[in-house]
Amino acid sequence: MGPLLFLLFLIIYLFTLMGNSLIFVAILVDFRLHKPMYIFLGNLSFLDFWFSTVTLPKMLQGFLEPDGTTISFLGCLVQLFFSQLLGSTECFLYTLMSYDRYLAICHPLHYSSIMNKIISLRLAAVVWLLGSLHSLLHTSLAFHLPYCGPKRIDHFFCDPTPLLELACANTSINETMIFFGIGVVASISLLLILLSYATIFKVILKTGPAEGRYNAISTCASHFTAVVCFYIPCIFIYLRPNSKSTLDKTVSVFYTVLTPMLNPLIYTLRNREMKAALFRLKYKSKCVPEH
After folding, report:
1. Calpha distance 204→214 (Å, rounded)
2. What letter does residue 290 receive in the DSSP assignment?
3. What pTM was computed for the model?
4. What is the DSSP letter of 278?
5. What is the DSSP-derived secondary structure letter of residue 35?
6. What is residue 201's predicted lDDT score, i.e. its pLDDT?
7. DSSP states of 75-92 as a string?
């Protein structure tokens, strides 16, 4: 079973890298996409590229080593830091992206005065700053815990909750910070996104022709699917910081593996500008002069 899972997740990983790198490069080189929505989408692709890279290689190695892979304490902390940095930044970014769509659809006349390229870049920087502070907090809390016992993590990457099982000290502070700092924050973010999309759906249903409404609702529904695949597993895991269920490991696959793979499809298949940009990128690559 191990080799088959290795092959399956290797294909997923390669597809994730290819899809997200194409979107990021297309947005970077095409000035037509230097708009708030695509600036946020470029950040999302960058996050998904590295989020999968932080977590998936160790998982792939584990499929080929039934007894488990080894990682140093420093390596575990580095993985913890970057997984929390990328995951929390993506959490905040989804909220920002839904707010951007809310402004564009519900307040189109004021959109350009509220959201422009400079403001979107600043907001993206704020999101990264919040993710960095969040990650530093949880990494420092994990670093100062004393660890004993078998020193074996029942997970495919170093995450705050499975690390608590190895600590031989009171972890109530860590559990509280995980509950409020990750679980509650993710729940609030999801609630804000739900409110944004509810308002968007309400406006869409009141305006425009039937075909346009169908396309808009279909696009928003696909975006919402990606959001649900990311937030629900996070909320399920981090609102139960003292849980020792093996189900958590399976649930983690949704936001660490599946969401980064699905996002390139979800955000490009129904986006004409994005598809056109990818076509232009392909055309440019074929027209590079030979020396």
Report:
1. 9
2. P
3. 0.91
4. H
5. S
6. 85
7. HHHHHHHHHHHHHHHHHH
